[in-house]
Amino acid sequence: MTPQLALEPVGTPNSAAGDPHLTEDQFGELLAASQEIASPGATRAEAHLLCCKQCTSELDSLRESLSLFREASTAHADNELRRLPQMSLPARRLLLFPALDPAFLAAAAAAIFLVALLPMQGFRQQTLQPAATASAPSPSAESDEALLEDVNREVSASVPTPMQALDDPTASASPASTGIETPIQNSDQRKD
Amino acid sequence: MVPENIQTFSSTSLNLGAGARTTPLDDLENVVALYQPRVFRFLLAQLRDRDAAETLTQETFLRAWSARASFREDCSVATWLIRIALNLARDHTRTGRFRFWKHISANAVDVADVAASVPNREGSAEAHLIAQEQVARIWETVASLSPRQRTIFLLRFLEEMDIPEIASVTGLPLGTVKSHLYRALNVIRTRHNASSSNCGNQEKA
Q1: Other C-beta atoms within 10 Å of A41: how many?
Q2: What percent of chain B stands above pLDDT 70?
Q3: In this complex, do B62 and A90 lie within 8 Å of one another by their Cβ atoms?
Q4: Contact residues, A window 69-128, toward B, CB-based 8 Å cutoff
Q5: Which residue of A7, A35, A141, B183 sits 20 to 30 Å from the alpha carbon of A158, by its own alpha carbon?
Q6: A80/B36 touch (CB, cutoff 8 Å), yes or no
Q7: What is the CA radius of gyration of chain A?
């Protein structure tokens, strides 16, 4: 949108030349215009400023306020930046670790792979070593084998034949003394 | 025309290999040292949130460095960085608007802090106080502008970009930039005049 360059018809023509005051767009154009660029509209507005103290005063006041705003904002941002702890650290980290370089990524991946392999290799060695040592006889294994031998010996010992008469168990102890009646005795008593 | 800062950086670029094209952004440490205050200042005024401004400033340089190969040097490094920062700020406010406004209450920039940063020029204490009031008034008025008007106003009066540069950063036509800028200035002028007349009345009373 092209700004309206017509002079504002409102207000009393209190400038020396009797011209009406600057329009909003002319104020905007004068405030926003770069020093080196001057449009024809701005030139016309500047001509008005030469003879209108009110517009000149208002424009100067606005320029001053905008300048103060910039200075204050800059000073405030600089103070805030000083308070922040090392804002450039991520940037430095990037410089030290150029993670986005494909060659660096490949090298890093290879290094991680190798580092991951090393502990696994160590673990394998640790697991193989006890297996090798287990084959050698240890003192505890010897005692176990002796125990098994004893068990075998007792199991394979001769057992009485099925119909062989048992020794009289009452020879040395009466049932009253033990309180136990053997089934064989009962069957003999029944026969009697 | 090659901007001055580009010539400065070309001599200190990192070695990126025979096939890689060197850009002014290769020497990131220098770029950060030179432009961090500017990017942070813009983001702080735009977002009015310290944490967000800090985070997005870092993100701006990260993105710039990542995309440095696409920097065609058709604008200055500063313009390119501000463009990235502006896009990040837009995304930030768009995607997490609710969270942003909720969060801002804890980290919002206090207008009194900004006003207190007004340089104390040679003059009376009263003049200094009036200057502080003027700055506070503008800071508050800028907050009430529409996002587009605020962005354009800040690019012009904080970053001192000219209108074609603002059009390049925002991707808007020149006429639209001017239109938004004049509207923003009109709002500021109206509030400024109102406060000035109030001050005048108080002085008379």
Answers
A1: 19
A2: 79
A3: yes
A4: 69-81, 84, 87-88, 90-92, 94-95, 100-101, 103
A5: A141
A6: no
A7: 56
Q: Which residue of A has its CA nearest to B56?
A: A87
Say which residue, A190 or B152, is predicted with more confidence: B152
Residue pair B118/B128 in contact (Cβ under 8 Å)? The answer is yes
Token pair listed for B64: 């710039």
Which residues are CB-neighbours of A47 under 8 A, at least 6 positions away? none
pLDDT, tens digit (0-9, with 9 covering 90-100), for A10-42: 344 444 445 677 888 888 888 887 654 556 666
Both tokens of residue B46?
Answer: 């735009």
Q: Do B37 and A78 touch (CB under 8 A)?
A: yes
Q: Is the pTM of this model over 0.90?
A: no
B-interface mutation test, from A1, A59, A65, most B Cβ less than 10 A away: A65
Phi, psi of A34, deg, nearest 5 = -70, 155
| Residue spans of beta strands (DSSP E) within chain B | none
Contact A29, A45 (CB under 8 A): yes
Phi, psi of B129 (to 5 degrees): -65, -40
Length of chain B: 205
B166-B168-B174 Cα angle (round to 5)? 65
CB contact under 8 A, A72 and B178: no
What are the angstrom distances between the C-alpha of A119 and each of A122, A133, A190, B183?
Answer: 5, 22, 81, 68
